[in-house]
Model the fold of this input.
Amino acid sequence: MPLYEYRCSKCGARFEALLSITRRDEEEQKLTCPECGARRPERQISAFATGGSFGSSGFSSSDSSCSPGG
Ligand SMILES: [Zn+2]
Done:
C-alpha cells in the first residue's frame, strides 16, 4: 500500500497514512488528525521518492553497556 501524506487544516499537524489504492477515497473519509482529531485532512503531494526507508524519530533510550555473562 502506498504512503500518503496529509496535513490537518485545523492545527496544521502533518502525518502519514497507509491507504489502499482501491479504497483510498473511502479510507480518507475516516482519517482523523492524530493531534486534534479533526477530520478530512488535506492530502499533500509528496515528491517521488526512491526506495522506502522509515526513519525512527523520538527514540531515546539509555542502554547500559552489555556485560559479559558469567
Ligand atoms: Zn489537527
Q: What stands out?
A: Helices lie at 24-28. The mean pLDDT is 81. The beta strands are 3-7, 14-18, 42-44.
